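Q: C-alpha cells for this one, please.
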Amino acid sequence: MSRQSGPTIKDVARLADVSIATVSRVINHNGYISPKTNKSVQDAIKQLGYRLPRHLRDQHQTEKRIEVILPSITNPLYAELYEYIEQRMTEENYKAFLHFDKGDEHALDDYVMDIKHGTVAGVIVSSPLKTVGTINYDNLPIITFDRYIDKIPLVKCDNLEGGKKIAEKVLSLGKKKILILSGNRQDFYPLNNRIKGMLSVFNTYNIDVETNYINFVSAPIERRIQITQAITQPKYDAICCTDDITALLVKDWTVKLGYQPLVTGFDGSSFIQNFFPDLITVRQPTEEIAKLLCDLLIEKINHPSHHFEHEYLLPVTLLD
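A: Here is the predicted structure, written as C-alpha cells:
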C-alpha cells in the first residue's frame, strides 16, 4: 500500500484560489504580493499544515533569510533604516527581505509561521502588528524597533529626551502658543514618549499647548487635507510635529496661510538633513539602530536561550 503524501503546493494554490506561481512567490518572497493575496496563501498554508519539501527548507536555511517588516517607506527614516539593515545583514551572510505591513490585516503570529516553517531565520519588525496571544515569543528570533511587543527585545531611541530637547529649543526662541501635531492617532493611546517629553517641559513653564493628530499612513492628499483642518488660522507661535514629513507638510501649508510659525520635526534622517537642513528636528542614529537590531537578531538566532534585555535605548541629538 502506498503511503499518502502530505498537502502539496497545488493544494495550497487551490484553497487560496491563486496560481501555483503566486504561492511560490509568497513562499520565496520573490516579487510583489498584495497583503490580501499574501494573507490568503498564508491562511491556506496554515489550514493545510503545508511544509516545504526538505531540500527546499535546507536551501532556505542555507540562504539565511531575514524578514524586515515596516509600515511603509513614506517616512525616509524607514528607507534609511532598511538600507543599513540590508548592508549589515549582507556583511553577516544573511539576506534581508522587506515587507510592508500597516498591521490592518496581519498579526505577528502570521510571520512566526515563516520561522516555524523554516522559510526565514528571523524577523525584524517595526509595524504595529497585533499578537493573538497563543504563541510564546520568548525564544523566537524576533527583534522590534520602536514597537513594544511583550517578551520580544525592543530597540528604540530616547524619545522622551528628544521631546524635551525640542520643547526646550522652542521655549528658548520665545514661543508661547504651541500646537503639538502627531502623525498618528495611536500616539495618544497611550501617550507617545515624544509628546510626553514635550509636555513635561511646556507644562513646567505653564505654556499654552494644544494637541492634535493626523493619519500618517493615509495618502499624501489626505494628510494635506487633515493638516488644513487642524490648522485653520495663524494662531500658533510654534507647531511641534512628531515626525519630519508631517513637519514639512505643515510648513508648506502655513506658507499658503500667509504666516511662518516655528515648525519642528523628529527623526532627522540623512535625507532630511541634506535637503531640509533648516528644519529643527531630533536625529535618531539610524546606522547604530540598524546595527544593534541585526546583531541582536543574529545572537537570538544562534543562541535563543541567552538572556536579552527587554529594552535597548539609544541617545538622540537635537539638530538646530
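A few notes: The two ends are 77 Å apart (CA to CA). The first strand starts at residue 65 and ends at 70.
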